[in-house]
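Progress note, sequence design subtask.
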């Protein structure tokens, strides 16, 4: 007759392994009910993405004000050949004239208003959402967002 003999350290290691797997399983189950920043609108064939204009401000050691404008989120991922609706809310800055590089899409986002852009990307790649006013650091930028088409 053979007996299985376990040391105290082995039992503790097995217990903690089971505990970690259990906690991971509970966490994975709970995150299935999280709320994404990208949502499908009323129709399942349109991907709706909410963006805002944002601003960062600070003062340098010399007391000079430094500011930069950004799109938030700064990077979004969409599927090729999917109808996409960008809903851009103007929060900071009076106006942000923009274009999407590689397309004929242009517009302006104004403070306190929502700009809606409908687009379908037929080629994979990275498209830049560029604010014409804030292209470089010298102009409080770069205010460039990235649309990754997969």
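Output:
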């Amino acid at each position: 007759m053979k007996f299985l003999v376990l040391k105290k350290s082995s039992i503790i290691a097995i217990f903690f392994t089971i505990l970690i797997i259990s906690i991971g399983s509970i966490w994975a189950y709970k995150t299935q009910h999280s709320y994404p920043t990208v949502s499908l609108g009323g129709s399942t064939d349109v991907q709706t993405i909410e963006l805002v204009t944002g601003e960062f401000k600070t003062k340098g050691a010399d007391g000079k004000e430094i500011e930069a404008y950004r799109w938030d989120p700064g990077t979004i991922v969409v599927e090729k050949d999917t109808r996409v609706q960008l809903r851009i809310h103007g929060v900071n800055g009076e106006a942000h004239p923009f274009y999407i590089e590689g397309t004929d899409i242009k517009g302006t986002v104004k403070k306190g208003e929502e700009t809606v852009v409908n687009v379908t990307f037929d080629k994979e790649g990275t498209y830049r959402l560029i604010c014409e006013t804030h292209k470089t650091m010298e102009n409080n930028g770069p205010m460039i967002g990235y649309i990754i088409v997969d």
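DSSP finds one helix and ten strands in the chain. Work on this subtask will continue into the next period as scheduled.
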